[in-house]
Amino acid sequence: MQLTHYNTNFKQQTFPITLVCDNVTNAPNIGSLFRIADAFGIEKLILCGENIQIGRRMAKTSRATEKVVNYEIQDSASTVIESLKHNNYQIIALEITNSSKPIHNIQFSKTKPIALVIGDENFGINQHILKASNQTIHINMYGQNSSMNVVQAANIALYEITKQLL
């Protein structure tokens, strides 16, 4: 018998993870980020950018999770990162770079809160934020494409991080 959200045995839990979205503006992507923020029990979702819309198109994908996820909208991801860094967060950028490490080789700290930074659908994470990050991680890919959808990448990263924090 298939279970529903009313009869699963999943234990509700909140992890010390803040998902910082650097200029993720696509409404369906934002809606999906609300859903995964709820599914993975992250502490906060911070949407950064000048054109963030929390409207009908986003709500269609979020399935009302924007009502239960702790979130805020800020203009500047750089300012958010500096503030989190000042508050002892480990800043982890999810981006393929010449110095990024595969996510499956990383041991995430259980003693410091995590700020996972994801980037713009087309341009990735701002260079200033990459430089300000404590670590840059990537997901190994085995096909011909060099990138994946930002929401899919965030799903994989949050799964790996929460698995380690359990």
With strands numbered from the N-terminus, the spatial order across the biggest sheet is: 3-2-1-6-4-7-5
Could you give the count of β-strands?
7
Straight-line N-to-C gap: 27 Å
Which overall shape is indicated by the principal axes computed on the Cα atoms? globular
Individual helix count: 5
- Main beta sheet strand tally, sense and closure: 7 strands, parallel
Coarse structural class:
alpha/beta
Mean pLDDT: 95
Beta-strand percentage range: 15-25%
- Low-confidence runs: none
Helix content, binned percent: 25-40%
Radius of gyration: 15 Å
Taken in chain order, the helices and strands follow as EHEHEHEEEHEH
Structure description:
By secondary structure, the chain is α/β, with parallel strands linked by helices. Helix 1 (27-39) packs parallel to helix 2 and helix 1 (27-39) packs parallel to helix 5. Helix 1 (27-39) links the parallel strand 1 and strand 2 (42-48). The chain is globular. It has a seven-stranded parallel sheet, sandwiched between helices. The chain has five helices and seven strands; from the N terminus they run βαβαβαβββαβα.
